[in-house]
Amino acid sequence: MSEDAKVNKNQSKKEQLEKFTTDDRGKKMTTNQGLKVSEDEFSLKAGERGPTLMEDFHFREKMTHFDHERIPERIVHARGFAAHGEFQVYESMKEYTKAGFLQDPSKKTDVFVRFSTVAGSRGSGDLARDARGFSTKFYTEEGNYDLVGNNIPVFFIQDAIKFPDLIHAVKPEPHNEIPQAASAHDTFWDFVANNQESAHMVMWTMSDRAIPRSYRMMEGFGVHTFRFVNEQGVSHFVKFHWKPVLGTHSVIWDEAQKVNGKNPDFHRLDLWEAIENGDYPEYELGVQIISNEDEFSQEFDILDPTKIWPEEDIPVKIIGKMTLNRNVENYFAETEQVAFHPGHVVPGIDFSNDPLLQGRLFSYTDTQLLRLGGPNFHELPINRPVCPFFNNQRDGFGRQTINRGKVSYHKNSLADNTPEPASKEEGGFEHYHEKIDAHKVRARSESFKDHFTQATLFWNSMSKPEKDHLIEAFSFELGKVESKSVRQQVVDMFGNVSMELATNFADAIGVNPPEGEDTGYTKSSPALSQENSVKKPDTRKVVVIIGQNYSGAEVNYVLKELKKKGVQPEILSNKKGMLQGSDGSELEVDHTFLTADSVLFDAVYAVGGSEEDKKFFKQAALFIHEAYSHFKPIGATQEGRPLLHLDEMEDAPGVIYGGEIEEFTDRFIEAIAAHRFWEREVV
C-alpha cells in the first residue's frame, strides 16, 4: 500500500473534505482562470441601454457555471405541471406584428403550458410562498414561439449577471440545505437588503399573489419588454399579459402551510381534475403597446424589468384567448422534458435591450444542453415544431433525424447550396434594425436607478386586507431570519417604500422602526389589487357536511342549483358509502373527516343528519371553525344550523342561513362567488 493510500485510509471523511474546502472571506473576486474581476453587477453592453455583448467572457463563465449546477432537475422552476390547449386570436394584429398566429381569428394554434414554482425542488409542495412560472409554447406554422413568463410582472434584478446571485441566495442555505422552497431565511433577505433593486418584486412575492388559489386563477406575464414588428418594419414595444377568465384569487398563509401538509399536489390535482371534468381553464391574452417614438414618455424606463407599465396609463388590449383542454399522457416525456427559451420567436416578435432578457437569451439554451443531454432537445416530441425544419446541424446526443447525403455545410455546390437562407419575403427572420452607437461599458443606465417608487405604487394599490397580509408576510419571513443586522437592514430599506409597512413589521420582528419621512408618493393602480378581480362561483369546490337521514328534498335542490352555476359540491361524512335521506334519496360519500380538510375547499355547506351522534357534530364543528377562520363562505340548513353557534358566527359576513330554500341557495351562491369575507377580521 502506498504512503498516499495509507494517509487516505486513516483520514476521516471530514478531513478528506476539508482538503477541498475554501474560505473566500477577505479575498478579491476572480474568474475561474484567476483573472481579477473589476465589476460583478453589470454585464458588458453597447452603451448603458444597449444590448449585452457576446464578448463578455465573465458573464458567460458565471452564467454557464450557474446553469450547470443542478442535475437532472431544472435549477429553477423544477416543480411544475402542464397541459395542452389551443390559442385563438380575436382580431388580426397586422397593424403591429406580422406574426402569423396573430393574424387570422378563425385559426387555432396548439399550445403547451407549464406552470411551476421557482425556488423549490421537484419534491417540494405546491403552496410555497413563491413566484410561479407561466410558460407557453405556441406550435405555429412559422416555428415554435415560447412566451416564457411568471405570474408576477416584474423581477428581482435588472441585469442577468445577477441571476446566479439571486438564486444562490433564495435556495436552501449551502451549509445545511435548509430551508426547502422557502425565502424565510437569512441569505435571501441579506440579498434583498444589499440589492435594493429587488424592492418592487419583494412586495409582489410577500403579497397574496405568491400563494395563488390555483393555476386556473392566476395571471401570467411576459415580464420583459419585447417588440412587435409589422410587415413594413415598423416596431412597437410590447408587454404580454395572460388574464384568467375566472379572475385572480389566492389563499391565505395559514391555509397554504396546511395545504402543503394535507395535499402537497393541490395545484397539480386542481388543474388535472378541472381538465378531466371539462372545466377547461381559459386565459385571455392581452398586450400593452408603446410606439418607438414614446420610448421615453414614462416616468420610468420601459426596459427596466423591475417596473410595470401601469394599466391605467397604458391599457391592456385583449387580443385572444387560450383554452387548456387536454392533460398530458406522460409527465416525464412532456412536462419534464419540455424546453422553453425566450429566444424561440417567430417573424414579427423581437427583443428589446432589457439586460435581464438579453442574458436569458444565452442562459436557456445553455441550461437545456446539460439537463436534456445535448443539443438535440428540439427533437423530443414535446419540443418538436409542427412545421418542418432543415439546417446543417448534425450528430450529438439524442439525435433522431437521419439526414441523407454527404453535405452538412453552407455554402455548397454538391447539394445546390441547400438548405439555403430564406429571404424576408419568404418568411426569413430579420432582427429589428436598431441603430447602436455606443461605448463598451459595464454599467447600468441612470434611468434604472429608482428602486422604490413602483414598490410604493404597489403598496398604495392594495386593499386594507391585502396590506394586512403584506405586513404579516414580512413579519413571518423576517421572523425566521436569525441575523438582527439583516432584519434591521430590511426594515430600513422598506422605509423607502412605506413607513406604515416597515414600522408595522419592524415591531413584529424586534428591531427599530425606520427613520425619516414617508415617501409622499400617492399614485395607485387599481388593476394591481385582487379585490378588483373577476369573481365567479364557477368551479369552486364546496364541501357538504352531511349525515344519515338528512332532509333529501332541500339538499337535492341546493346541490342541483350549485351544479347549475358551475360549483362543484363534494360530500363529506364520517364514513364512506351511501347516505339515506328522509325522502328515500341517496348520496354517495366522497370524503370522510379523516381524508379531507377545510383548506382543500372554497366553502362549506353544513347539513348534518338527524341520526348522527355527538362525535359527528364535534368533527363537523371543528371543520367549520377552520373554514370560518380562513374567511370562507359558510352555509347551513337543517341540523347544520346549530353549528353556527360556534364562534358566534351567525351574524358574520359570508355566513348564510335561514329563509326559504330558494333564497338561501341564491345567497349562498353569491357568497361563494365573493371568495372571501375579510370583514370578519374586524368583526
UniProtKB/TrEMBL annotation:
GO cellular component entries: cytosol
Keywords for this protein: Heme, Hydrogen peroxide, Iron, Metal-binding, Oxidoreductase, Peroxidase
Active site residues according to the UniProt entry: 77, 150
Signal peptide: none
Record InterPro entries: Catalase, Catalase_AS, Catalase_clade2, Catalase_clade2_helical, Catalase_core, Catalase_haem_BS, Catalase_immune_responsive, Catalase_large_C
Oxidoreductase among keywords: yes
All residue ranges annotated as the Catalase core domain in the record: 30-418
GO molecular function: catalase activity; heme binding; metal ion binding
3'-histidyl-3-tyrosine (His-Tyr) cross-link site: 341-364
Binding site for heme: 74, 114, 163, 360, 364, 371
Residue numbers spanned by region Disordered: 1-35, 513-533
Keyword Metal-binding: yes
Named cofactor requirement(s): heme
UniProt cross-references to SUPFAM superfamilies, sorted A to Z: Class I glutamine amidotransferase-like (SSF52317), Heme-dependent catalase-like (SSF56634)
Feature: compositional bias, Polar residues: 521-532
EC main group: oxidoreductase
Function, in words: Decomposes hydrogen peroxide into water and oxygen; serves to protect cells from the toxic effects of hydrogen peroxide.
Family statement: Belongs to the catalase family. HPII subfamily.
PANTHER family hit by this protein: CATALASE, CATALASE-B
Protein name: Catalase
Organism of derivation: Alkalicoccus daliensis
